[in-house]
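User: I need a structural model of Large ribosomal subunit protein bL25 from Paenibacillus validus for a docking pre-check later this week. Nothing fancy, just the predicted structure tokens so I can convert them on my end. Input:
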Amino acid sequence: MATTLKAEARSGRTKGDRNRLRAEGKVPAVVYGKKVPQTSIAIDQKELLALIKANRHAIIELDVPQLGKQPVMINEIQRDAINRQLLHVDFHQINMDEPVNTTVRLEYTGEAIGVQEGGILQIQLHELDIRCLPTQIPSVIEVDVSSLGIGENLLVSSLQLSAGIEIKTNEHDVLATILTPQKAEPETVDEEPGAKTEDAPAEAAAKSEETV
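Assistant: Understood. Predicted structure tokens for Large ribosomal subunit protein bL25:
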């Protein structure tokens, strides 16, 4: 089920207008698509941040003045390079009957055999690029690593997704691997320099006493 996000109409397009909106806790944005003319809008910053944190690639039901509720996806996010504040967001209106390209988070499950044997699980990919109908987009894709042994890799090609979902990520890319555990090197005791030379005079003195 899509999350509903309410938008406000935005007329001012100058830098000063955008800064004023941000000072009011709103994010300047734009929505466009085949069935929607490019429209400047403003979104509540807290609501938008919560949505992005939950799922940046989710389908959103954007309630736009004069346009009504439109199914959209976030196409681009602009942030301040220093404080990471949201500066601007592009929303792309989608057709629910046409496939879309999107990205889905990967969630790794199970305890790998290699980990039980002392290996280390190293995750290489955290997201997967796919293409499918908007209604088929999974909230997350689970990846079972329980059968993975030490030195083995799990490739994108091993994933089995529902019919109608096309994987766009390279099938040869590594999802996860089990690293061989490193053996601890034995500690070596460094001999103190001059230890033998310090004992030499004492040994020589002992020999001279025996001859007296």
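Before docking, keep this in mind: The domain at 101-179 is CATH 2.170.120.20 (RNA Polymerase Alpha Subunit; Chain A, domain 2).
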